[in-house]
Each structure stands twice: as C-alpha cells, then as structure tokens.
C-alpha cells in the first residue's frame, strides 16, 4: 500500500511538471508568434548591448542571420556615434528601471523610427533589470505627412494664428509673423491685446468672448493692428473656437489678412508609437492564475496582487461588456482579430491594450491563454495625428480664397470649401484625382493650369506662358475663364511649390480669386473718366483729347476745324417746375438727337449742366459750321416729349474756327464760349461766331 501510494504521489508530481512545461511551451509559442507577427523590429540586449534575441524584421534590416548576431554587440553593426548613443540609453534603462522613447534616423537609409526601450526585470515586483527590450517602429510616412502639411501651411498667402483662452499666441505661420513684424521668438506667447491700442483691444476682447460663449465662428471683420515698429496696418480677421477631442474649448484660431494697400493664405504634432512587447497571462475559472512581467508592468500591480483576482479587475468599467463579447467570439473561433480596450492601473491611470485570447488546457482543466500589448502610445499617436490632420484640413478649409494642392503626380491632396463653392465639386469627389481633372470645372477640358507650371523651368514658363509673372517662387496670372461652362469670369491665381524637409519639390498649392466684379468696376471707372455719366457722351477730358488730335491732323492737311458750344435756353425753369428727373431725361434726348444729326467723325460732348460742345473736324469752309448751326436750331423747333410733358426748347450756339479764331484747343474753346454769350445777350435761340462772318446773323 505504501509503495503504491508513493508511486501515485510520484506520478502526480510528474503530471504537474508536464503541465507546467506544456504551459510554458504554449506561452513561448504564443509570445514568439506575437513578436514575429508585428511589423516592428524587436530585439533584446544585455547591459553590454549584446543581442540576446531579435525578431525576423530586425534581422532583415541587418541583412544577417540570427546565428551571426546573437551574442554580438550592437556596435558591430552600426556606426560609432550611433552605437554610443544607443549604449547611453541602455545604461539609463538599467539604472532607472524605467522605459524611455526617442526618435531615431537611420544613417543607412534615412528612414525614421520611434524606439521604445523597456526594462526586463526579474520575476516579482521591483525585481532587478536583467535586460532591455527594444521596439523600433518605422514612422517615416508619418514624418513625410507632417512635412507635407507643414509646407502647405507655410505657403498659404494669409496669416494664420492660434491663441489659448487667455489670448496668448500659441501658433502662427510666417505670413502672420510678417504682418506683425516681430521675430518668431518675440511673437510666440505674446498676448494679442498688446498688438493694438486700448480701444481696438477692447473690441477684440468682445469678439473673442462672443465666439467663446456662442461657439459661432466670427467671419471677416475689419480692424487695425500695431506692428513692432509702431506702424499701423489695416487687417481683415476671423476667429473660431478650437476644441479638443472631447469637444471642450481650448483656444481660438483664425485668419488675418493685411488689406492696407488694396482693402482687398501646424505643424503636425509628433506621433508616438506603441510598445510592442506582449504581456502574457492565464485565466482559469474567471481568475488570473499566471501573469508575466510585462503584463504586470502595464497594470502597475505586483503578481501577488493580481493572482486569484477576477480577470476583469483592471478592465475599465465602460469596456467590460465589450471585452466579454469579443473574448467569447475569439474563443469560439469566430474571430482572430485583436481587440482594443482600456484598463485602469494601480495608480488610476487609464491605458489602452490590444488583446488576443485562445483556449488551452492548464493542469488538466480548460483555461484561457491571453496576450496583450500596451498600445496607449499608438492610440495617443493616432488621436494626435487625426487631430493634427483635421486641424490642417480645417486651416485650408478656413481660407477665404479657393485653394487646392496637388502632389508631384498631379493628384489632388487638398480641396477647400471655397473651391467647392466656386466649382460646385465637393472635396471627396476631387481629392485623389489626377490627370488634370482639377482643370475640368474651369476650362471644360483636361489641360495644364497655373499650379502645373510650378514644376516647369523659368525658361519654359517665359517661352510658353507669357501671361504668367513670377515673384520669388510664386507664379501669378489673371485670365478669363469659362467657369463651370458658363460666362467667362475673371480669375486671379497664385501658385507656389511645396517642399519636403530635404528641399525637394513634392507638390504645389494654388489659391484662386474671382475678380470679375473688380475688373468690371475698373472698366466702369475708366469709362467714367472720359464720359458723362448721365448721357453717356464724351466729357470735357475726352473732348479735349480728340480736339488735340484733330488739330494735329488739320495742320498737316491744311484744313479747317470748328468748335461749337451750345446750351438750352431757360433750362433752369424746366428743372424748377417739372423736377430734375425730367430735366435729366431731356438732356439725354438732346444728346441723342445731336449725335444722330452729326457725322460719325464729329464729336458731341456734355461738359456740364445743360452745356454741350461739338467738334467738327476737317471742314472746307466757314459756311459748313453755319450750316450745322442752322440745322441744330431747326432740330430744336421740334417739341420733345418727356414723361408725357411736351417741351418746347430752344438753344443758343457759339462757335469758333481754326485757324481764324485760334490755333490751339484752349483758345478755340474760350472763343466759342464768348460767342455763346453774345448769342444769349442778343436774345437766345440763335448762333454767333467769335468774329462776324459773311453769313452770321445780325
């Protein structure tokens, strides 16, 4: 009986050792599978920086086999300066027992990595550091994305700013700094109140307070700022709230544009990466029965504090039901995807883990083998990246000018709301499109436009696109464009290159303004400078120009020229009795009748009030002028119907001849005016020449 009992005891001990070995084998296989499945480079070194372990990804970067590396120091495969820096960080982890992270640029291929150094300690809480695990995550694409959007921001035409809730400047672009005239160090953290006088500062406070209390963005307002040199500048500015990911207001953002001359475009946050070392644990009957050092480190507890506790003791209360559902699906073979959830550490810190679970047999009973990675830094990095990208898209969307950007392959990478409104095409329908598709809403065809010329040489631009001007790196052009297939619109555009950190052109950005109204106004102003606004006839200025040219012509051809001045007799009486609108319409009718009566080469001008001036170039004799005067008097014998009023109007005329009455324009006009007053003194409704002529009336 004793012998049988002893054998039974011995066999039981053997089964227990076999179970433990099986569990350890399963743990090792799961851990190795997890390490090899990650896209990161993972390796383990001792205090002398000698490799203890490394995964296939790291071996691939070294281009060596595992046997060639294990036991060899880091310095055998890396430059001296890089190796010295690596050794310092390893020593720091051994000394402090804490993990650390840093960004690292490979001298081998220029790629960027986020390296996480984690202490590997002896079993038990507070154990000595025996090795350091290193997780190296490739963040090159994130860095390039940061540089791309940084380049876009620094190349917009308008000033962009951000403030904290107390009004201190926390961010600004180069355009904004130039507007205010301070150095970057001086401008950073300056309070906006100091950039204006007391009165304007009070207004600014009210504007920002309104945005804060209502949450409604403030569109363009006019204001005045004081530059560092004391000069004042007129600006247009806007403001809106900045909110964090929870929706809480944390500051303000806006655009400021210097409009003094004519009244008339964030840096991405640096991204953190996750710690790729796995925590391994076993759960049986809903409780922890085994947990490794990494898992303990995530939670901040000792093994003794967690063994025997419920498996969801560290799970965030809001995530417990989700974890149960996801775990059941994975244990049933319905899913093999890791799931993320929050845990609460011993010090009440919330952290994120990514977890997988698998069913196992442990000590003859069903159990759950789990592994988890702390992805808190990855989550934070993702949130920061999303927030940064969203802020940069918000900046571009916030620009008042229609703005878009392309990469070197001519694919659209940004398309703001202003250009959506201009073209009628939404950003989701344009971003990512290439093959000159961005030209379609402007020209109805695929063709190079201003933004594409950024990639050409100065010589090509000068030879093929003479309408384009270059100011520094900016290309500027104005063109008549059949926007959206409609009537031509006058569009002004400015395009600049986008650079990466090495100075390579990686894309281009263009801002477009519709200046049709401005061009039309310029044409109107130009027309009004030479014409009478009431009748549309030439004014005194245009009359004088034509008289000067006509005099030069008749001097060469030895011909005569006549200047006539006439006004309406008793016109004031019409204005006083029937009103100025009737008088104005009468003047227009008179102008039309005179224009129809004269030759095409003659000029009829209104020079003010009821006075008209006529230029009769290239006449053969004085009688020609008299004939015209008589025809005018006859014209005025016909009544004029204005708004139902039959008006009988007469006119008095004075004229002067070249060369008899003057050899320059001023003399001829003055003498014709004198003759007009003679005609009025002699009873009106008649004509008079400056000097008596054979056929002049008595």
Rg, Cα atoms, Å: 44 Å
Q: What topology, given as strand order, has the largest sheet? A: 17-16-21-20-19-18
CATH topology of the largest domain: Alpha-Beta Plaits
Major sheet description? 6 strands, antiparallel
Q: Structural class, judged by helices and strands?
A: alpha+beta
- Please give the domain count: 5
Global morphology: elongated
Q: If you average the pLDDT, what whole number results? A: 83
Low-confidence sequence ranges: 1-10, 264-276, 693-698
With helices defined by DSSP (H or I, 4 residues minimum), what is the helix count?
21
Helix content: 25-40%
The CATH H-level homologous superfamily of the largest domain: Reverse transcriptase/Diguanylate cyclase domain
N/C terminus separation: 168 Å
Task: Write the CATH architecture name of the largest domain.
Answer: 2-Layer Sandwich
| Total number of strands | 28
Short synopsis of the structure:
37% of the residues lie in helices and 29% in strands. With 698 residues, the chain is α+β, with helices and mostly antiparallel strands. The protein is built from 21 helices and 28 strands.
Give descriptors for this structure:
Beta-Lactamase; alpha+beta; five-stranded antiparallel β-sheet; 698 residues; 37% helix; six-stranded antiparallel β-sheet; disordered C terminus; 21 helices
């Amino acid at each position: 009986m004793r012998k049988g009992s002893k054998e039974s005891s011995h066999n039981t001990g053997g089964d227990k050792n076999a179970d433990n070995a099986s569990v350890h084998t399963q743990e090792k296989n799961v851990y190795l599978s997890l390490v090899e499945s990650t896209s990161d480079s993972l390796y383990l070194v001792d205090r002398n920086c000698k490799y203890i372990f490394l995964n296939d990804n790291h071996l691939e970067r070294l281009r060596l086999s595992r046997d060639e590396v294990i036991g060899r120091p880091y310095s055998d495969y890396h430059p001296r300066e890089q190796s010295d820096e690596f050794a310092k960080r390893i020593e720091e982890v051994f000394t402090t027992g804490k993990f650390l992270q840093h960004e690292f640029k490979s001298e081998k291929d220029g790629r960027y990595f986020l390296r996480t150094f984690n202490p590997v300690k002896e079993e038990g809480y507070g154990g000595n550091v025996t090795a350091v695990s290193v997780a190296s995550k490739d963040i090159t694409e994130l860095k390039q994305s940061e540089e791309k959007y940084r380049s876009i921001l620094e190349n917009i035409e308008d000033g962009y700013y951000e403030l904290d809730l107390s009004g201190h400047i926390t961010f600004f672009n180069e355009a904004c700094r130039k507007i205010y005239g301070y150095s970057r160090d001086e401008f950073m953290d300056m309070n906006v109140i100091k950039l204006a006088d007391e009165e304007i500062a009070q207004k600014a406070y009210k504007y920002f307070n309104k945005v804060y209390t209502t949450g409604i963005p403030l569109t363009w307002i006019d204001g005045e700022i004081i530059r560092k040199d004391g000069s004042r500048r007129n600006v247009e500015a806007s403001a809106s709230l900045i909110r964090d990911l929870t929706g809480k207001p944390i500051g303000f953002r806006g655009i400021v544009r210097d409009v003094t001359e004519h009244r008339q475009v964030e840096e991405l946050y640096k991204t953190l990466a996750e710690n790729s070392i796995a925590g391994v644990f076993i759960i049986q009957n809903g409780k922890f029965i085994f947990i490794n050092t990494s898992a303990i480190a995530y939670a901040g507890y000792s093994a003794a504090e967690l063994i025997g506790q419920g498996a969801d003791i560290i799970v965030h209360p809001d995530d417990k039901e989700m974890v149960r559902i996801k775990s059941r699906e994975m244990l049933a073979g319905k899913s093999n995807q890791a799931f993320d959830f929050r845990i609460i550490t011993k010090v009440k810190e919330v952290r994120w883990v990514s977890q997988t679970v698998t069913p196992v047999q442990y000590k003859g009973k069903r159990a759950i083998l789990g592994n988890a990675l702390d992805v808190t830094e990855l989550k934070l990095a993702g949130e920061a990246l999303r927030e940064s990208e969203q802020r940069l898209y918000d900046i571009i969307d916030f620009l008042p000018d229609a703005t878009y950007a392309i990469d070197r392959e001519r694919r659209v990478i940004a398309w703001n709301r202003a250009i959506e409104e201009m073209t009628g095409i939404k950003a989701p329908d344009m971003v990512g499109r290439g093959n000159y598709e961005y030209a379609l809403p402007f020209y109805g065809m695929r063709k190079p436009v201003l933004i594409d010329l950024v990639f050409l040489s100065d010589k090509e631009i000068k030879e093929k696109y003479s309408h384009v001007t270059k100011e520094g790196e900016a290309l500027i052009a104005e063109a008549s464009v059949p926007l959206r297939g409609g009537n031509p619109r006058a569009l002004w555009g400015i395009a600049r290159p986008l650079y990466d950190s090495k100075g390579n052109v990686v894309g281009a950005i263009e801002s477009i303004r519709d200046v049709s109204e401005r061009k039309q106004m310029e044409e109107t102003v130009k027309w009004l400078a030479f014409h009478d606004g009431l009748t549309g006839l030439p004014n005194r200025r245009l009359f004088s120009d034509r008289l000067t040219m006509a005099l030069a012509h008749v001097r060469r051809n030895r011909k005569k020229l006549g200047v006539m001045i006439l006004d309406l007799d008793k016109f004031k009486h019409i204005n006083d009795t029937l009103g100025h609108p009737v008088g104005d319409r009468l003047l227009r009718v008179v102008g039309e009748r005179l224009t129809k009566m004269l030759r095409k080469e003659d000029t009829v001008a209104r020079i003010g009030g009821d006075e008209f001036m006529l230029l009769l170039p290239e006449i053969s004799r004085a009688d020609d002028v008299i004939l015209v005067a008589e025809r005018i008097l006859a014209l005025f014998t016909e009544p004029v119907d204005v708004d139902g009023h039959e008006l009988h109007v007469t006119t008095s005329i004075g004229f002067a001849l070249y060369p008899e009455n003057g050899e320059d324009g001023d003399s001829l006009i003055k003498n014709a005016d004198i003759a007009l007053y003679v005609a009025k003194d002699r009873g009106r409704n008649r004509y008079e020449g400056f000097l008596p002529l054979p056929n002049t009336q008595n």
